[in-house]
Amino acid sequence: MKRKVMVVDDDVNLTRLVKQVLEKKGDYEVVVENVSTRAAQRVLEIMPDLIVLDVVMPGKDGGEVQWEIRQNERTKRIPIVILTSMVTKEESGMIAGDKFLAKPVRMDELISAIEAGLMPA
User: Fold this and answer.
1) DSSP secondary-structure letter at 121?
2) Top-level CATH class of 3-117?
3) Which residues of the chain have pLDDT under 70?
4) Phi-psi region of 59 (alpha: psi -120 to 50; beta: other; left: phi over 0)
C-alpha cells in the first residue's frame, strides 16, 4: 500500500522534484500544496500519513500551518518533516516532536527523514 505524503512549499520546482522522486520510488502517493493559507484545510481533506512543510512561505509561514495542524484532533498526530533555510545542517534535528531539515536538502536526506517519520512509534 502506498503511503500518502503531502508536500507544502511555495517553491513549485521543489514540490515538483520531491513529488517525482518519491513517486518514482513507488512507495508513495504525493499531494502538493503550494499555497500555505490552504495547507491546513487540505491536510484535513487528504489526511496524509506524513507532511513535508516549508517554513518560509508567503501568507502563512510553516510555523502557523504546523500550529493549525496540531490544534486539530484529527490531524495533530500526523508526523511533519519541516524544511527550512533558517538553520544550518548542523542544527537540523527535532523541534516540537517533528523532524526538521536545513535547506537546501539532499533528496536522500529527505527520503530518510520521511521513511523515519512513517515508522510506527
Assistant:
1) -
2) alpha beta
3) 86-97, 121
4) left
